[in-house]
């Protein structure tokens, strides 16, 4: 699978990813101590929805466009709308780096990493207004190894591969195990595509085993399905695997999932604890 993000910016996968990401971040920021954040596969940082690529697919029209037209009673969905609104008014959609930067406190620090030259150059321009953000340009997994552990800071790592590599699931689970060895207290937030036979289930199982071996008390998985999970030759949905997940995450997802699917007009959100002790 090659998930070139410019074609898919603002689609349902972005919506669910960023909604849950903001939930996790808001929980971590309830403590006064500084938070170290790494966005390992940062991408461009911001996407012009009026450009040819998103106009060609039109995926944002059944994603963020419907969300921004909705009136939500759920506070987490309202927080997501608030984060997106300044960009939406200009026909843009913010990627994870800008959403996270928007939420930074004075005591927080963030590294955003993007390997590709042109994308990294664009990302630097978008990150210039944020003095607490450092932009790096290296392999994402090397960036994770360099980032962990953070001295005197809790860690939040966003891992959102484009899945250009055929062995991405295998590499991902190996790197997660390495990350947990370097910091067993880091919160790892992993996005993955749901396709029949993709390897996602094995990745989830192996990451959960690694979490058990390191004594993690909470691992959570949430999936948004637009088609049945085992339907072949389609992009059926996406998932979010959170290691060292907030204890509040299950209830918060439960409280917004029906309202979000109603606003989109399709889809099903499922979730479960893989570890909850």
Task: Report on this structure.
The termini are far apart. Helices cover 42% and strands 21% of the residues. By secondary structure, the protein is an alpha/beta fold. Helix 1 runs parallel beside helix 5 and helix 8 runs parallel beside helix 9. An eight-stranded mixed beta sheet has the order 5-4-1-6-7-9-8-10, sandwiched between helices. A two-stranded antiparallel ribbon has the order 2-3. The mean pLDDT is 95. The chain is globular, with a radius of gyration of 17 Å.
At the fourth CATH level, what is the homologous superfamily?
A: Vaccinia Virus protein VP39
Secondary structure: helix percent: 40-55%
- Major sheet details: 8 strands, mixed
> For the CA atoms, what is the radius of gyration?
17 Å
Tally of distinct domains:
1
Which strands sit side by side, in order, in the main sheet? 5-4-1-6-7-9-8-10
Average pLDDT, all residues: 95
How much strand?
15-25%
Global structural class: alpha/beta
Gross geometry: globular
The number of helical runs is 10
The stretches of 5 or more residues where confidence is low (pLDDT under 50) are: none
Q: What gap, in angstroms, lies between the N and C termini?
A: 35 Å
Tell me which CATH architecture applies here: 3-Layer(aba) Sandwich
Count of extended strands: 10
CATH topology: Rossmann fold
Highest-level CATH class: Alpha Beta
- Element order, helices and strands? HEEHHHEHEHEHEHEHEEHE
